[in-house]
Amino acid sequence: PGGLDPILEQSIPMGVAFHHAGLTLQERDIIEGAYRSGVILVLTCTSTLAAGVNMPAQRVIFRNLATLTIGTGIPDIIKYKQMCGRAGRKGKDPFGESVIVCSHVKDATVAKNVLNSAFPPITSCLSKGQNNPTVTRLLLEVISLGLVRLTTDIARFVKSTFLHVQEVDRGGEQEGFNEVAKRVKHALLFLVG
User: Fold this and answer.
1) pLDDT value at 52 more than 60
2) What is the residue-wise DSSP string for 148-187?
3) How far is CA 26 from CA 1, 22, 119, 135, in A?
4) For the segment 63-76, what is each residue's pLDDT rounded down to a tens digit?
């Protein structure tokens, strides 16, 4: 189906729109263009806000705690920061605001706990053990895209990954590279075997 959703057709000229994963590419382009040009002043979103919708805002309002429970059902600081990070983007606003609407005291307590919690350590998704299919998939993708052709290319590419940085931090430059090289070798053997 082409064109614009009938509700969006009526709401966009009024400065209001919605954004979600079910929009067509054409609808996304229209909404994002109208938002950037200032036609849309209020944009409601589903969790697409956390998925990297690059539409900076001055204020992000969470209508309830459930908004912060993508996937796990438990609100956490990473989800919150990812979503509220749309507020006050550099070069657009001097600051940003985020508001979590809590309808119960219990929700307010949970929200305070989320906001005051520490970030868990971030680890590379490639670091999940030697038999990690993610490393194999990554190598298959970079080989098929022609980004690497020789083993020296693979070594150079691997040194540019967060996994390499993480392993170097754990055991030093050579030790870190050797740890990553073991995983890469295992993945390559799987691909050619």
Assistant:
1) no
2) --SHHHHHHHHTTSHHHHHHHHHH-HHHHHHHHHHHHHHH
3) 10, 11, 37, 35
4) 887 777 766 667 77
